[in-house]
Input
Amino acid sequence: MKKIKISSRLKKLPPYLFAEIDREKHYLEKRGVSLIDLSIGDPDITVSKRAIDILYKSAKIKENQKYALDKGKLNLRRAIRRWINKRFRVQLDEEKEVLPLIGSKEGLVHFPLGFVNKDEYIIIPSPSYPGYRGAAILAEAKIYEVELREENQFLPDLDKIPLTIRNKAKMIYVNYPNNPTTALAPKQFLEKLVKFCVKYGIIIAYDNAYSEIYFDQRPLSILEIKGAKEIALEFHSFSKTFCMTGFRIGWACGNKKLVEGLLKVKTNIDSGIFGAIQECARFCLEKEGNFVRDLRKIIRERRDLFVEGLRENNWRKVYADATFYVWAKLPKRFKSSIEFTKYLLKERRIVATPGVGFGKCGEGFIRFSLTVDKQKLIKALALLKNRLILTI
Ligand SMILES: Cc1ncc(COP(=O)(O)O)c(C=O)c1O
Output
């Protein structure tokens, strides 16, 4: 038999950086060592009982048990249109400008297939959510990385993008509130971004998955910016806002042509979202405003506790402006984020994510996730607080 060969696309997908860390984690867990896992972006908080009741009731309806071969239920698209309008004062046409997704990742990754040709450029921030890189590789696009630097408030410096790239780029991924750096994007930056992208004909894939996980400043939608609808598609997620990571539902909204193209890609790949999940998501948008408020309060308390604890323990550069992450500079004596992550796991029983996993410019940082309760965070702080760390 001929040997099975993987495609060049698959070959190009980056190796799984955390394999060794995962192996060590499973090894320790198997031996009964209890670890505090601050690595995952999956909230420990559960969906409200009311929402689960809707899911259960809707699952019993025959129509919901069949293929959902459409662009999402009208009542869900309408709820999205109303929610966006209430939250951002943006008007959308629920027929042409809103598209439910099987989670925002699904849409973000499929999006270039509709608009970027082989060897055209996609601009991707470094560090950033790894899904963007995978999307570009699967679309056989070229990647141009823009750096998100601490000294630039973790915003990309658009002026530094060479003219040749500006002219050749078809798409840019932008994500604020930002995973992993926690930064927010000020309005001035978004205005500059829209002007830049309109001028050079670059489609903006604006990832707003964390729009509701904020503390002081309310994050903006790119669609609030004049001219954005000419060029942008914004992605939202129920995963973070309503703690529905396993449900797999999100949406895209914005420019009609972009919605249409993504829908065409999707109709060739998937067969819609389980109707009962769509009903549950609609219910959350319409009735679960208090859930989101309470979630923000819980995350804020965790953030305050954890950041204060780190600072008391001599961590100097700690960022936690939005999202449920803490982005912290490594203690000086550690040369790489992988080395530090291994050390935390072996010596402190804490699982965290090395910054380099988000791209080259994430090196020098570590990401902690606030997706465990305060008791566990207090325990983690106690584990971190000892001589070795204090000597940094
Ligand atoms: C920045 C960002 N965008 C998108 C996603 C994907 O979210 P989902 O597919 O669950 O909606 C994540 C998940 O961690 C994320 O961090």
